[in-house]
Design brief:
249 residues; TIM Barrel; seven-stranded parallel β-sheet; 8 helices; two-stranded antiparallel sheet; single chain; alpha/beta
């Protein structure tokens, strides 16, 4: 799917007054996804949205940075480090940093903004539910198109593997996930959790099916916990017998 929506919204005040109460009535944790054209903009949003009922903030730094000629923050290590520092100074909430696959050195980007605590990487990446918000629609989106869906999965899967080897903080994988098999591949590469986006446009009820199929996958292979899948391919010098439990029964 190709998109250039600019992530428009009605602003922070409307979001706080009208949207957060709707989600707060549910039992699952609320993760708010934010975007901004500058590091200060990200910090302001994080500060304004650090409210009771918000479990974490996801900062989508794969969006264009107007201070770097429209390049995504996460395309280079320096801008990634700068926006991460600004975010960490602005909020005590757990932070999820959403990266972009459009970089030539993912390990360097991952290491650049590695926090001291309470951070996760949403790699080229929800707890249970989330909402996107930005201060305004970004005009640069008309010239900066986004690509999502199955086409990006091989690229992002490699980045997840690289990040898992580069940092020791939890990684959330996202990009082209539309089945339990996709989830398994991301987790084997090192993801602790995953996000599903484009597939929900085609099948709004796809999440229950993926969860059921993932449960069946683990049951038939006698895997006690889904978390046992995470990073199984990162084991160095493992022989074939180490991963025999992944073979179909």
């Amino acid at each position: 799917m190709i998109n250039a929506i600019g992530i428009p919204s009605k602003g922070v005040a409307h979001f706080v007054e009208k949207i957060i109460p709707l989600y707060a009535a549910l039992s699952t944790p609320l993760v708010i996804s934010i975007s901004a054209p500058t590091a200060d903009g990200f910090a302001c949003l994080a500060r304004d949205l650090s409210l009771p009922g918000v479990a974490a903030i996801e900062a989508n730094i794969s969006c264009p940075n107007i201070e770097e000629d429209g390049k995504a923050f996460a395309m280079n290590a320096d801008s990634t480090a700068a926006v991460t520092r600004a975010l960490r100074a602005a909020t005590d909430l757990p932070l999820w940093i959403k990266l972009t696959p459009n970089t030539g050195d993912m390990p360097a980007v991952a290491r650049a903004g590695k926090p001291r605590e309470r951070m996760r990487w949403s790699s080229p990446t929800r707890f249970c539910r989330w909402r996107s918000i930005s201060r305004r629609s970004n005009p640069a989106s008309a010239m900066s198109w986004g690509l999502s869906g199955p086409a990006v999965k091989p690229i992002v899967l490699r980045h997840v593997f690289q990040c898992a080897n580069a940092v020791d903080i939890p990684i959330i994988g996202c990009g082209g996930i539309s089945s339990a098999d996709d989830v398994v591949e991301y987790m084997l590469a090192g993801a602790r959790a995953v996000q599903v986006g484009t597939a929900t446009f085609l099948q709004p009820n796809i999440m229950p099916r993926i969860i059921e199929d993932l449960q069946a996958f683990c049951y038939h292979r006698q895997i006690n916990r889904v978390s046992d899948l995470t990073g199984a391919l990162l084991i160095e010098e493992a022989d074939e017998s180490d991963l025999s439990w992944l073979d179909p029964q």
